[in-house]
Amino acid sequence: MLQAMKFHLKRIDFFIGYEVVSVLSVALVLDKTGNILFCLLASLIHELGHLFFMFIYKLRIKSVTFRLFDILILADRPKSYKSDMIITSGGILFNFLFAFVFYFINYKLFVANLVIGIFNLLPVESLDGAGILSHILLCFFSFNVVNIVIKILSFVFLVPFMLCGIYVLLNTKYNYSLLFISLYVLVILLKK
Prior knowledge:
about 190 residues, alpha+beta, four-stranded mixed sheet, 4 strands, globular
């Protein structure tokens, strides 16, 4: 992130990139369906799930950085494997819990939470699914082997997502979101 707005709240530094504000502003203005707002709320619920379990395990949160398709939370290291696994799973757990609640209240929020939760289950690097799978595989294999497996799985899952994104774009002539998100995650993967 090149430039960021910064503010401090209860000993936590918050950073919001200007590119995030710009892209979200344009997206919210152009989105006639309101779906982006529902996805943003589901994403916020997801991150609150991680923060909730960090609070439960009494981890000190140092900073929260809002980036283009994800939020980076820097905190103290969890003290146990179990707590790390629960914190990693916390966002998905919250999405599924809130999907159940919103099923009875608001269909769009139900769908948004379900989609965000399922998407984050994918074993793609930088998503929670890869973190959960890494925790499990590290019980049996070395860090290097697990790293290679996660990278391979990331590409195996991203290629079909990109192809689906191209298909959706060609058929709708305007819906580029799946392709854009897939390319964004691929760029992050290639940078590592």
